Hints:
Layout (H helix, E strand, L loop, with lengths): L3 H14 L6 H11 L5 H16 L1 H7 L7 H11 L5 H4 L5 H12 L1 H6 L1 H5 L3 H9 L4 H10 L6 E5 L6 H10 L4 E3 L6 E4 L9 H4 L3 E3 L2 H10 L6 E4 L6 H9 L5 E6 L2 H14 L4 E5 L15 E7 L14 H4 L2 H19 L2 E11 L8 H10 L3 E4 L1 H4 L13 E3 L1 H4 L4 E8 L2
Parallel strand pairs: 5-6, 5-8, 6-7, 8-9
Antiparallel strand pairs: 1-3, 1-4, 2-3, 9-12, 10-12, 11-12
Helix pairs in contact: 1-3, 1-5, 3-5, 5-7, 14-15
The structure holds S-adenosylmethionine (SAM).
The site of S-adenosylmethionine has 19 residues, from α15 and β6.
Protein name: SUN protein
InterPro entries: MeTrfase_RsmB-F_NOP2_cat, MeTrfase_RsmB-F_NOP2_dom, RCMT, RsmB-like_ferredoxin, SAM-dependent_MTases_sf
Family: Belongs to the class I-like SAM-binding methyltransferase superfamily. RsmB/NOP family.
Amino acid sequence: MINAQQLDLTAAALAQVLTFRQPADVVLSAFFRRQRKLGVRDRQEIAETVFATIRHLQKIQKMLPRPHNKPRRAALAALVLGRGLSIHAVKSLCDAEEKQWLVELKEHKSDFAATLATAAELPEWLTDCLQQQGWDENQIIAFGRSVMQAAPLDVRVNTLKGKRDKILAVLQAEGLRAEATPYSPWGIRLYDKPALNRHPLFLDGVLEVQDEGSQLLALLTGVKRGQIAVDFCAGAGGKTLAMGAMMAGCGRLYALDVAEKRLANLKPRMVRAGLTNIHPQRIDNEHDARIARLKGKADCVLVDAPCSGLGTLRRNPDLKYRQSGDNVEALQQQQRSILQAASTLVRSGGRLIYATCSILEAENQQQLNDFLAANTGWHIEPVQTLLKSHALPAMQGDYLQLNTSEHHTDGFFAAVLTRIK
Length: 421
Ligand SMILES: C[S@@+](CC[C@H](N)C(=O)[O-])C[C@H]1O[C@@H](n2cnc3c(N)ncnc32)[C@H](O)[C@@H]1O
């Protein structure tokens, strides 16, 4: 149970977080760096209450229109709405006005359930987008609620270093609540969130943290040993490492990105994973002359495009307040340009995989349709056919579309195209 000092500090952190000028985790890390004396338990209470506030912000905002100006009230509301505390339990932390305000907040329960934005805990710009792409209210509410749950910890077994069944047995024998992921053949789901970065299986490169959905995207590339592959937007290499393992360390895998810092994070991970065939390369942009030598050479190119990230709201609930329709339009232009440039690297008969961690058609199907309208000589490979030998969620259409409410992964989209000339 949170104490008075922790509540005051939560309010101080919320005054910054709720402006949404920066990612919540960045603001919170900087806040904790300034509060050196705080213990682990203090940090946990503050962080949990900050994230509960963001997760329940639609309801809180209904009663408190500018919550960053009244962050103590926002935090108290989060304790009651998000952290399951009764008003009685928090009454020693409140003055009389605050207590009365909490009572009124609770009285609005049925209003909250009757309005789409508060029932789904999604801002109106996003519920509008989802409705425009044909989602009905029940789907939107189911999605919104599914992303209010914290994500479990999914890890991928590096097939160069271990077999999933054996590793799963080791983790279970250590008393961890662990089970095989339902769809990815390499995945293990952990429910207790152990500090994995000190675990010998992590330090030895047997395990990597990776959401099951992200594992499935790598699986979909179908990349094989000895091939030439490109991960065009590799970031810190989540999918690069999985592709490297699929290639059994043979062939060449280029990990490209514009962000030096992210690629730098890939390097120790490659070493841990025992992969020597990955070539990280920073590029200035998608037209960088340094990649011209790969034109028409790659067997497989993955474009895990920069996107709104709206499929990852379980981990980054503040994104729904930091994104907007205008932002999505700017991202669409970037995605179009990257996909176009990356496609030129694919050899005849090779594969191009376009993926995002977004649930918006504007970033997904629409990009694919635009690409196919502007480019001839490409064929869509239905995802169900590609992955028929693997367990895969039932899915309509040719694309992989993962949604937290149905598949318990982050939301992902992926399409596979083959170059036919
Ligand atoms: C969705 S993230 C990739 C995540 C990564 N694939 C993983 O699995 O961890 C998108 C990445 O695209 C990179 N990016 C943005 N613009 C780019 C460009 N023009 N060319 C290549 N990469 C770009 C960003 O720096 C970011 O790392």
